[in-house]
Specification:
Elements lengths: L1 H11 L4 H12 L7 H12 L3 E18 L4 E17 L4 E7 L11 H17 L5 E8 L7 E3 L5 H22 L14 H12 L2
Parallel strand pairs: 3-4
Antiparallel strand pairs: 1-2, 2-3, 4-5
Helix pairs in contact: 1-2, 4-5
Length: about 210
């Protein structure tokens, strides 16, 4: 935390004083509230495990195999993306982290972190010649003080199963799009649903 505070203050020194003060409070906290940095470091410390390798902004490009029909079939998908951070633990397990500047996505429907985790697993297994199980997959958001973390599932085998299931959902969605089936499925943040409802009622009388 001391090192992070030093780096943060150095980086913020070029900002106007008012903006600098707000960012310092948000990141480093104050006498009445903890900062975002402390909460994130605490999450990682509580997770434990010995990290032996770390990949930052890992490029994912090329064909990857995705399960279909609950794993009874496979299809190849060309993926082009960049995984923000991958931690490799001593036992070969993987933690995949995607940083968000705003809010944590809806972890009940989002497939991005699962697709990245699925592709990262294949890439590292091909490189290392040994199994890599995804036991943690999460979003870390820096724009919402109420919720800074969103996990795909509890750590361990439940995360591995969730990654496989979402990867299968991703492949099925591509199948439907290629078949010309892509009806709109709008989603809106739950905490703004009442605001949207009021706007619709006032504008359209519904």
């Amino acid at each position: 935390l001391e090192l992070f505070a030093q780096l943060t203050r150095d980086a913020l020194s070029r900002m106007p004083e008012a903006d600098r003060a707000l960012e310092e409070i948000r990141l480093l906290g104050s006498i009445v509230a903890r900062g975002l940095a402390e909460r994130v470091f605490e999450l990682e410390a509580d997770a434990g495990g010995e990290i032996v390798d770390r990949h930052l902004e890992m490029t994912l490009e090329g064909p990857f195999s995705f399960p279909r029909l609950s794993g009874f079939d496979q299809r190849v998908v060309e993926i082009r993306g960049k995984a923000d951070r991958i931690d490799v633990f001593a036992n070969g397990d993987l933690r995949v982290v995607d940083y968000k500047l705003s809010r944590v996505p809806d972890v009940d429907s989002s497939v991005q972190i699962a697709v990245y985790a699925h592709a990262v697993q294949q890439a590292l297994e091909a490189r290392d010649g040994r199994p890599h199980r995804v036991t943690q997959a999460m979003y870390l958001a820096f724009g919402d003080e109420r919720q800074s973390e969103g996990r795909l599932a509890p750590a361990g085998e439940e995360t591995a199963a969730a990654v496989r299931a979402r990867a299968s959902d991703f492949a099925a969605a591509i199948d439907r799009i290629e078949a010309g089936e892509y009806p709109p499925v709008p989603k809106r943040p739950a905490d703004r649903s009442e605001e949207h409802t009021s706007e619709l009622q006032s504008r359209f009388g519904i």
